[in-house]
Amino acid sequence: MTEQPLKNKKIIISAGASGIGLATSKICLSKGAIIYLCDINEKFLNKLKKHPLFKKRLFVYECDASNEYEVINFYDQIKKKTKKIDALINNVGIAGPTKTMEKIDSEEWESTLKTNVTSHFYFTKLAIPMLKKNKRGSIINLSSGAGIMGFPLRSPYAASKWAIIGMTKTLAMELGKFKIRVNAICPGTIKGDRMVRVIRDKAKFLNISKKKIEKEFVSMASMNSWIYEEDIGKTCSFLISNDAERISGQTIAVDGNATRLD
Ligand SMILES: NC(=O)c1ccc[n+]([C@@H]2O[C@H](COP(=O)([O-])OP(=O)(O)OC[C@H]3O[C@@H](n4cnc5c(N)ncnc54)[C@H](O)[C@@H]3O)[C@@H](O)[C@H]2O)c1
């Protein structure tokens, strides 16, 4: 049997029905956790309702993370099942537009900031009392390599991901005395649907081949490798486990050393 370092640990995760969030949920489930996840995509959520642990250790809800009313409703549903949680993974984040700043309209700017930063505020504000009741816990915020470096053509995304680092460091200072640890993970270029879209948009904007853009992204890492969704899931699982009990306020890049470009 797999080791169960997260046995019965209760974890809330935003945007968990596909991509990094789904891989992370599956890894945490395999280590014994109980997962409460939300997502905006009904099709992805319905697929998860066929998971063998659905309604046993996996609870799924439809919720737009950028809508405060829906987030409050999501937490109300969870509170019918538990008053305490061990961890929150603020995973939601959209890519935003791929354009130079003068071509970005204010709606694109604001929706990127709203989903990538304000959503984390909604989730964190409601999670803190549940973590305090637990008398310890872990908050993990998904930032990005774009939260450490500049990221041409993605200014609202980069701005949002730098904001996440500021939020992480501040919260770690505010919550340390409650034994609540707060860390940020900065994934590199993840092999998955999101990067297919990002590469397509960048190739279109610059009018060069997708192959060239893909090579450029992968070679940003000194390990010259894609990063996999499971790499982020394993890091989350470690940060939630007791093995990480004195790690807080950190920005952890999981990117094959792409941030060397900083
Ligand atoms: N994929 C990458 O290369 C990469 C790199 C660095 C950082 N990240 C960050 O990691 C996190 C997860 O990325 P991903 O690639 O898995 O994302 P993704 O684009 O694959 O989307 C994952 C899920 O988010 C859901 N979602 C989108 N908007 C939502 C909303 N408003 N409310 C609820 N759910 C919503 C989607 O339905 C989807 O199921 C994000 O914060 C992202 O910025 C990703």
How does this structure look, described?
This protein has 262 residues and is α/β, with parallel strands linked by helices. The chain has one domain (10-189, 229-256): NAD(P)-binding Rossmann-like Domain (Rossmann fold). The protein has helices at residues 19-30, 42-48, 68-79, 106-134, 155-175, 193-206, 210-218, 229-240, and strands spanning 10-13, 34-39, 58-62, 87-90, 137-142, 180-187, 251-254. It has a seven-stranded parallel sheet with strand order 3-2-1-4-5-6-7, sandwiched between helices. Helix 3 (68-79) runs parallel beside helix 4. The longest helix has 29 residues, at 106-134. The mean pLDDT is 96. The chain binds nicotinamide-adenine-dinucleotide (NAD). The site of nicotinamide-adenine-dinucleotide has 27 residues, from helix 1 and helix 6.
Question: What's the helix and strand layout?
Answer:
Blueprint: E1 10-13, H1 19-30, E2 34-39, H2 42-48, E3 58-62, H3 68-79, E4 87-90, H4 106-134, E5 137-142, H5 155-175, E6 180-187, H6 193-206, H7 210-218, H8 229-240, E7 251-254
Parallel strand pairs: 1-2, 1-4, 2-3, 4-5, 5-6, 6-7
Helix pairs in contact: 1-8, 3-4, 4-5, 6-7
Bound molecules: nicotinamide-adenine-dinucleotide.
Nicotinamide-adenine-dinucleotide binds at residues 15, 17-21, 39-41, 44, 64-66, 91-94, 115, 142, 144, 187, 189-190, 192-195.
